[in-house]
Design a protein that fits this description.
Elements (H helix, E strand, L loop, with lengths): L2 H23 L3 E3 L19 E4 L4 E4 L3 E5 L2 E4 L4 E6 L2 E7 L6 E9 L3 E7 L4 H10 L2 E5 L5 E6 L3 H9 L3 E2 L6 E3 L6
Parallel strand pairs: 1-11
Antiparallel strand pairs: 2-3, 3-4, 4-5, 6-7, 7-8, 8-9, 9-12, 9-13, 10-11
Length: 184
């Protein structure tokens, strides 16, 4: 077997291992209602987060009333997209198309250069336990009886605690999206 064939096989095996590890360890976090509960929804997506953002496969477009191109789905404000502001973060609540729950991204604009994305991460047991100390967490289970996904509905006070304890995090590699064109 040639070196390039061995290298290709090693890369495929590594990719398969990473995918299976994420499948076994990655948990989705859903919310019963748009977050934070006590804050009112914005009537427009703010100008400082509008724009065009490159994605791995496509370009994400954020307008005054839509997010187009995210996960092969378009989101419309007031329908399957609710935006709220709290403690300097924009809470982008996206209705999950396969359930009655919401997926949440916290977004901070960075001086017109792009957006920093944050999420509540519950993949590690220590993080799950810390979140469970602050707010009620319901787990769903897979076919083997293992915890699969988590459903939350924190209050504004609980959000403050989640933020203060550093449980809302950004991925240093994938947590920043660069703006390629300004908002309108």
């Amino acid at each position: 077997m040639k070196i390039s064939g061995i290298l290709a096989s090693a890369i495929k095996l590594s990719a398969l291992f990473l995918i299976s590890t994420c499948y076994l360890a990655c948990h989705e976090v859903y919310f019963e209602q748009p977050q934070p509960l006590e804050k009112r929804a914005l009537s427009r997506i703010p100008k400082d987060i509008r724009g065009l953002y490159p994605d791995e496969k496509d370009t994400l477009q954020v307008t005054a009333t839509k997010v187009v191109g995210m996960s092969d789905e378009d989101y419309t404000l007031g329908e399957n997209l609710i935006v709220k502001k709290f403690r300097g973060y924009y809470f982008m609540n996206l209705k999950d198309k396969d359930s009655a729950f919401w997926i949440l991204y916290l977004v901070k604009p960075l001086d017109g250069k792009g957006l920093q994305l944050y999420m509540l991460d519950m993949d590690e047991e220590a993080d799950r336990n810390a979140v469970k100390e602050i707010t009620k967490v319901r787990a769903t289970y897979d076919s083997e009886g293992k915890e699969d996904d988590y459903i939350l509905n924190p209050s504004k006070r609980e959000w403050k605690k989640l933020l203060e304890r550093g449980l809302i995090r950004t991925d240093p590699k994938d947590g920043f999206v660069r703006r390629i064109e300004g908002g309108r």
